[in-house]
UniProtKB/TrEMBL annotation:
<dbReference type="InterPro" id="IPR012347">
    <property type="entry name" value="Ferritin-like"/>
</dbReference>
<dbReference type="InterPro" id="IPR008331">
    <property type="entry name" value="Ferritin_DPS_dom"/>
</dbReference>
<dbReference type="InterPro" id="IPR023188">
    <property type="entry name" value="DPS_DNA-bd_CS"/>
</dbReference>
<dbReference type="Pfam" id="PF00210">
    <property type="entry name" value="Ferritin"/>
</dbReference>
<keyword id="KW-0238">DNA-binding</keyword>
<dbReference type="InterPro" id="IPR009078">
    <property type="entry name" value="Ferritin-like_SF"/>
</dbReference>
<dbReference type="GO" id="GO:0016722">
    <property type="term" value="F:oxidoreductase activity, acting on metal ions"/>
</dbReference>
<feature type="domain" description="Ferritin/DPS">
    <location>
        <begin position="23"/>
        <end position="160"/>
    </location>
</feature>
<dbReference type="InterPro" id="IPR002177">
    <property type="entry name" value="DPS_DNA-bd"/>
</dbReference>
<comment type="similarity">
    <text>Belongs to the Dps family.</text>
</comment>
<dbReference type="GO" id="GO:0003677">
    <property type="term" value="F:DNA binding"/>
</dbReference>
<protein>
    <submittedName>
        <fullName>DNA-binding protein ferritin-like protein (Oxidative damage protectant)</fullName>
    </submittedName>
</protein>
<dbReference type="GO" id="GO:0008199">
    <property type="term" value="F:ferric iron binding"/>
</dbReference>
C-alpha cells in the first residue's frame, strides 16, 4: 500500500505528511477492527443484562465508524491513500481476531475491556507521533481518544465492584479477562 504523499496541505512538507498518514493509518486499521469486534459482541452476547449491553454497543459501533471515516478523509487530505479493504486491513494489523464467540455479558465485557485498552494505548502512541508533525491530526486523535475512553468506562462500569475494584485487573488475554469478569 502506498501512503506516500504526492501533495499535502499547505504548511506541511511531504515527509511530515507521510509521518502523519502513517500514524493515522494504523489507527484507521485498529478502529475498523474495533467496529467489527463491537458488532460481533452485539450479535453474540447473552445472559443477564443482555439487552442493556446489546443496545449500548450499536452507538459505539456508529461512533467508531464515524472516527474511521474522519481518519480516512484526513489521510486523503494529507495526500495519502486510505485503504480499507478487508484483505488490506487483515494484512496491516498486528493482533489476533477477537477470541470470544457466544458468551455471557460479563465475559464479553471483560474481553472488550482489554480490546479498548489496546486501542486506547495505540491512540496515545499515535497522538505522540502526530504531535511531532501535524497538530490537526493530533487534535483529531485526541478527540477520538476522549470518546474511546468514555466507551471503555461504560464497559468498565459493568466490571467494577462497589469498592472500586476492576474484575479484569491483571488479565493479559481476552480469555483470561472474560474468565475473571465471569467470576467477579
Amino acid at each position: 500500500m502506498s501512503t506516500n504523499a504526492k501533495f499535502t496541505v499547505p504548511g506541511l512538507n511531504e515527509k511530515e505528511a507521510d509521518a502523519a498518514v502513517q500514524a493515522l493509518d494504523g489507527r484507521m486499521v485498529a478502529l475498523i477492527d474495533l467496529a467489527l469486534t463491537l458488532k460481533h459482541i452485539h450479535w453474540n452476547v447473552v445472559g443477564p443484562n443482555f439487552i442493556g449491553v446489546h443496545e449500548m454497543l450499536d452507538p459505539q459501533v456508529e461512533a467508531v465508524n464515524g472516527m474511521v471515516d474522519n481518519l480516512a478523509e484526513r489521510i486523503a487530505t494529507l495526500g495519502g491513500v486510505p485503504v480499507g479493504t478487508p484483505g488490506s486491513i487483515a494484512e496491516r494489523r498486528n493482533w489476533s481476531d477477537y477470541s470470544i464467540g457466544k458468551g455471557l455479558v460479563t465475559e464479553h465485557l471483560g474481553a472488550l475491556d482489554l480490546v479498548y485498552s489496546g486501542v486506547n494505548e495505540g491512540h496515545r502512541d499515535a497522538i505522540a507521533k502526530a504531535a511531532k508533525v501535524d497538530p490537526v491530526s493530533e487534535d483529531m486523535l485526541i478527540a477520538q481518544l476522549a470518546d474511546l475512553e468514555l466507551f471503555q468506562w461504560f464497559v468498565r462500569a459493568h466490571l467494577e465492584s462497589s469498592d472500586g475494584k476492576l474484575a479484569t485487573v491483571g488479565a493479559s488475554t481476552e480469555e483470561e479477562a472474560a474468565k475473571k469478569a465471569a467470576n467477579q
